[in-house]
Each structure stands twice: as C-alpha cells, then as structure tokens.
Specification:
heterodimer; A: 374 residues; mainly alpha; globular; B: 353 residues; alpha/beta; 6-stranded parallel beta sheet; 6-stranded mixed beta sheet; 12 strands
Chain lengths: 374, 353
C-alpha cells in the first residue's frame, strides 16, 4: 500500500492521472450537450497527430506559452505573481516590430538587435512592476494588470499610427526580411526549394506549410537557463528563499527589495523573449489592433501552474496546452461543437491538472483514514 | 543537491523519449477513424470572417447568406469559420486548407496578406478574397472580388441631394482607404449631380470615425452633423453606422444605410440603403468554379450591371418620383452615360466635366 501511495504522490503520475480525469469530465460535458465524446476525442487526437504539419504547428505554437510560462514560474519561485506576462509580451512585440521596420542591418546583427530590443522592453516593464513593489510596497498584481492594458492600447496606437500603419489593413508593416528567424525561409519558397520539397512529403508538410523556426529550441534552452539560475547560482538561491519565506531571507542578510526587482526583470525578459520571437518567427511578422488580449501571457500562467515544481515541466505543459488549443479549433470546425464548449473542455482539463498539487495531500488523507481503520 | 541533478537527468531522458515518439509519429502520421462524413466528393466552399464575425449584419452576414444560397441550389457544402482576432486569420485559413475545401473565401481586405501567404504555400488550393485586388500580382489560384460601390453610392447621393430640405448632407466613413473612398466620392458626385439638376448649392460634410466598430463615436458624429444643419447622413462605416442611424432616430432626421437594407434599424428614419450584395458575388464565383471555369489569377469587379450593388426594392420613406428618377440614373450608369468617380482623382475629373 505504501508503495502505491508513493507512486500516486509522484508529480508525474498524478499529473497524468489528472489529465485523464480532465478528459473524462470533459467527455461527460460533451455528452450532456449532445456530442459524442469518443468522436470528439478522436477528432482532437487526429487534429494533433494525423499529419507532420499538425505536430509541427503544435510545437511552434507552444513556444511563446512555454516562455511566458517560464516567466510566471520564475516570478512564482521568488514569491511574486507575474500576472503581467501578457503586457510584457505585448510590449516586446511592439518594440520588436518598430525596430524591425526602422533598422536595416545585415541579418546576423538585425535578428539579435531586434530580439534584444523586445526582451529589454519586457524586462523593463517587469522591472518597473518590481521596483514599485520593492520601493513603495504596491501590490505587483494591480500594477501589472494596469501595465497589461497600457501595453494593449499602446499596441493599438502604434498599429494605427501614421508611420507604421499599413494602408488597407488593421496592422503595421511587416518587419524586414533580415529580421526573420524562420528557418529556410527564402529557400523553401524558391524554385529549387519547392522542387526539393515536392519529393519529400514529410518535409513538405512540416517545413513548407508551417512557420518552421528556432523558437521551440530556444524555449527549451531557456527552461534549462531558468533551472540554472534558480538552482545553481547564489542569486537563484536568494530568490527561492525569498519565495518561501521573506522574513527568513531578510534576517539572513539578503536584500529582498533588490531581489524583487531582479526577479521581475528576469521574468519580464522571458515574456519579452516570447513576444520578440513570435514577431520574428511566426505569422505576418507584425503587430495589429487587438480587440482583446491574445492570452499568450495568461495561458503562460496556466502553463506555470501545470508545470509543477520544475521549469522543465513548462515544456510539457506548454505542449499540452498548445495541443489542446490547436485541437479545439479543429473540433469546432469538424463537429460543429460551439467554441464555448471547446473552451469549457480545455478549462476543465486545466482545472484538474491544476488540482494535481493536492494529490499528495489527498493520498495522505486517504492513507491516514486507512490507518485509523486498522 | 544530488537529488535535483538526478531529477534533471530524468527530465532529459523524458524529453528525448518524447521527441523520439513525436518524430516517429510524425513520419507515419497516426489517425483514428472518427466516423465523421468527410464528403470528399462533394463540392465544398468555406469562408473565414474578419473580426466583425458572422452576425455583423453587413458583409460577413451577406457573404454567408450567398454561400448558403449557393449550397442549397447546387447541393454543395458550405461552412464558415469566425475570427475573433486578426491573429486568427492565418490559423483559420490554414485549417480550412486541410479540409478538402474547393474554394476558400477570405471576407474583407484584412485577410489579404493571409490569403496571399496561404496561396503561395498551397498552390493546389483555390482562394478568393472579398474587397481586395492584388492587381497584376494576383497569384494563379486566387480570385479577387471587388465591388463598384461608388455606383450605388452615386444613386443614394442623388436621392439625398433631391430629398434634402436644408441643402446640407453628411457622410460618415469608417477607416479611410480605397474601399470607403468608393462610397465617399460616389456619394458626393451623386449629391453634386442632384444639386446641378435642382440648380442649388448643396454642402456635403465628410467625416471619418477611424473605426468600424465604435458606434458611440458614430452617434456623436451624426448628432454634430445634424445640429450643423444636415438633414440626411450616409454612412459607410460598418458598426459605427448603427450609431449614425441611432442619431438620426433621436433627432428625427434621415440616415442612409449601407451594405444591406438597414431600414429595420429605424423604420421611420432610414431613407434608403446603398446595398452591396457581397453574397451574390460569392455565389457567382462559386458557381463559376463549380462549372469548371478558370477563375484564378483574376480580379472580378461587380456593380449595378451584375446586380451586386443597388437600392432596396422597398423604400417607404422615399418619394416615389425620386426613386423612379434614381432607377433611370441606374440605367444611365450601366450604359456608361454617367461616369461615377471612385477616388479623389477621378472625383476632380468628374467635377471638371
């Protein structure tokens, strides 16, 4: 029995169990509103796994939420709640787009410069929140929510401004080609590239038809970097101590205030990286008028929650989340299930995964009761 | 410390294993039978709305009506996908590409980039874009659908010019651009035409709302125009226009609707509407493709002649005589007797004549 308890307490096992449970409850909901759950789940499975293109798209779309997830995770470990990942993300897309349009450098310099600009924008926004908290004790949740809105409207302003607005559209011009981080971008649209890809079904699907880029690999590397900072450096140790007990950190001579600013700076930079890479690597390489938040930052919060105790969890959580969103869009189209139902399904699954953290407590409770009975 | 290192290794092994599985899977491509009828043999059309959504009571709704009409007449399959954000455009168009759709419509110039990109990636698919022309650079698998909205705007301009009692009329535009210019200059030319005929001077006030959705702003602009002496205001501003019509209702003046017959919004205060029947054009293009015509690489222009723009059949607030005159003008436009300007340059040319 004790062995079983330990297995159940393993975060990996309990997360998988939670995902299965989430799918089960989602099935019940689907059944209740009149859709065949088996069919829906099969559609969702196909939407992710039936073609190389789909798998590639899920991976590509996971990169920004892995990065914002890491951002929220990092702040969380230092005892801060970075609800501003969304705003930092948007601020970064704005700066990256502006720099990408204005600057005209060779690709090897252009890419780092505009990405760094975006990262810096996110980092500054994060640091500003941290500074307000450290200096004046203003709750970081309130300030970062406000910064989210400021970033959103700034984005709309820039999208409509005379200098950057592209006529006959609701967005800005695209950044210059030299700033693209897509791999094989010029080659795959050239004649030779097309000819070559025609004969290779797999590459044709996975490379030509997607925004094939380095983003995901960078996100994975960043997970490792976050782990290094948090667990292998003195500063990281200080961050974690402040996260667990601020008073203990202060009494041991750590400058908690400065650490808050640093921690938010790094968290903001991670969100900024997500935004910058999205502009350079995917879509139409620009920003456009936002009616509502695109949820890249907010999904990052869910990702960080699902990830559990380690930054590497963010990678899997990000993939799971992006898979759910991607499959959800197909589900709506194929079965006619309203998008609300699809979102409820995703919500339920995330909810159960978030409950994972209570699993050990639950197991303890059950085993205690069992022991009492004996 | 040791524990954390070993856990890192566990994660590394997991990550590598995970990717091994994914790569293996993606080479083979696994799918489960869903039992859903894929209808591979049936002709199928689909559209992606712009951010206005399917119920915008304007060109998205109109397109969908036309598509449904086409589907029920020919036994084809019609589907739509709604976009909430501009960033949804690419995903939606891209997803439709995987669904055996014979013709994919992008509704609105906002989707122009997306259609261009997708058509380059999927040369085997057919695309069409509403309200946008790539001109000479139109890819071989894309058709542009543009409307000569200036023709119906000229007619409502004429009606406004003939009906106005204060000799001042107004125009409220959405976001300035090629499409809205057609409405503005067609309308102004129509007003001028009526003014000459009546031998009076009619003042046309023009203002842009810089939005297609801010109906409060539309109302504010309309109220200002009415208090400045206008008694008829024409709008070409999507959702902003709902506010314009509201303003007309409040001050008991006339508004002129756009895209669809908008008289249901204020039965007593909508003089007429400049109809732009996108649905009909969608129907025509779909039918052409179904009949095996080559529609790719071209831009089609639809106007009074094709019955894609015009006036509603019933205009209870409109003087019968003026309506009949407007119909006469319609014929003169079709026959080319009246030249209708569609932008500032052609408008200046028009004024010189």
């Amino acid at each position: 029995m004790k062995k079983l308890d330990n297995i159940l307490k393993n975060p990996l096992v309990s997360t998988v169990l939670a995902i299965i449970l989430g799918f089960m409850v989602a099935s019940v909901i689907l059944l209740a509103v009149g859709y065949k759950p088996g069919q829906c789940l099969a559609v969702m499975f196909n939407a992710v796994f039936s073609r190389p293109k789909f798998i590639m798209n899920v991976i590509i779309k996971s990169s920004p939420i892995i990065l914002t997830g890491l951002s929220v995770f990092f702040a969380f470990k230092s005892g801060l709640f970075n609800i501003g990942a969304e705003g930092q993300y948007i601020a970064s897309t704005i700066v990256t787009t502006i720099l990408g349009i204005i600057l005209d450098l060779p690709p090897l310099i252009q890419v780092p410069v505009i990405v760094l600009g975006g990262v810096l924008a996110g980092a500054l926004l994060g640091a500003a929140v941290g500074f307000l908290k450290a200096k004046f004790g203003i709750n970081e949740v309130i300030t970062s929510i406000m910064f989210n809105w400021i970033a959103l409207y700034l984005c709309n302003y820039v999208s409509n401004s005379e200098r950057f607005h592209r006529p006959e559209s609701d967005g800005t011009f695209s950044i210059r080609d030299s700033g693209f981080t897509n791999l094989f971008y010029n080659w795959k649209f050239s004649k030779e590239g097309r000819e070559y890809l025609k004969n290779n079904q797999f590459l044709n699907d996975a490379v030509l038809k997607t925004d094939f880029s380095l983003n995901f690999i960078i996100a994975v590397i960043m997970a490792f970097v976050v782990w290094l900072i948090l667990y292998k450096t003195v500063k990281g140790y200080e961050f974690r101590v402040s996260g667990i007990n601020v008073d203990a950190a202060r009494n041991n001579g750590m400058c908690v205030e400065r650490n808050i600013v640093y921690s938010m700076l790094i968290a903001g930079a991670l969100s900024g990286l997500a935004g910058a890479l999205t502009v350079t690597g995917t879509g139409s390489h620009n920003i456009h008028v936002l009616a509502i938040f695109e949820n890249n930052g907010f999904n990052g919060m869910s990702v960080a929650l699902i990830a559990g105790g380690t930054p590497f969890g963010c990678i899997f959580a990000g993939l799971l989340f992006s898979g759910l969103i991607y499959a959800g869009q197909s589900l709506q189209f194929k079965t006619g299930a309203p998008s609300e139902i699809v979102n409820i399904m995703i919500g339920v699954i995330v909810f159960f995964v978030a409950l994972t953290q209570f699993m050990p407590t639950l197991v303890d409770m059950i085993s205690k009761r069992r022991n009492k009975d004996v | 410390m040791k524990r954390s290192i070993s856990s890192v290794w566990t994660y590394f092994i997991l990550i590598i294993l995970f990717f091994a599985i994914i790569i293996w899977m993606s080479f083979s491509g696994i799918s489960i039978k869903t039992g859903l009828d894929d209808d591979k043999d049936r002709f199928s059309v689909a559209m992606v709305t712009d951010t206005g959504g399917i119920n915008d009571r304007s060109f998205n709704t109109s397109s969908w009506e036309g598509m449904k009409e086409f589907a029920s007449r020919t036994g084809s399959k019609a589907r739509y996908v709604e976009s909430v954000q501009s960033s949804d455009y690419y995903t939606n168009i891209d997803k439709l590409g995987d669904e055996n759709v014979d013709l994919i419509f992008g509704i609105g110039f906002g989707l122009a980039d997306t259609i261009l990109k997708s058509s380059g990636i999927n040369p085997e698919l057919n695309y069409a874009i509403v309200d946008f022309s790539y001109g000479d650079d139109t890819p071989d698998n894309v058709s542009g659908l543009v409307f000569r909205a200036e023709e119906s705007s000229f007619m409502v301009g004429y009606i406004a010019g003939m009906t106005t009692k204060t000799n001042a009329v107004g125009f409220v535009g959405g976001i300035a651009g090629q499409v809205i210019s057609q409405f503005e200059y067609g309308y102004r030319a129509g007003v001028d035409y009526a003014a000459k005929k009546r031998g009076v001077n009619i003042d046309t006030k023009v203002q842009y709302a810089e939005s297609f959705s801010d109906s409060a702003k539309g109302k504010a602009i309309a109220l200002k125009m009415f208090s400045d002496g206008c008694d008829i205001v024409f709008h070409a501003a999507g959702g902003v226009g709902v506010g314009v019509i509201e303003g007309a209702k409040e001050t008991n003046n006339f508004a002129i609707g756009v895209d669809m017959d908008q008289s249901y919004l204020a039965p007593k205060n909508v003089l007429t509407s400049a109809i732009k029947n996108v649905g009909k054009a969608v129907d025509i293009v779909s039918t052409d493709l179904l009949n095996g015509k080559n529609i790719g690489g071209k831009t089609f222009s639809y106007g009074l002649k094709e019955g894609c723009v015009g006036l509603p059949d019933e205009n209870p607030n409109l003087d019968k005589k003026i309506y009949e005159e407007a119909i006469k003008i319609q014929e003169e436009i079709i026959s080319g007797k009246i030249f209708v300007p569609y932008d500032l340059e052609t408008f200046k040319e028009y004024q010189k004549r």
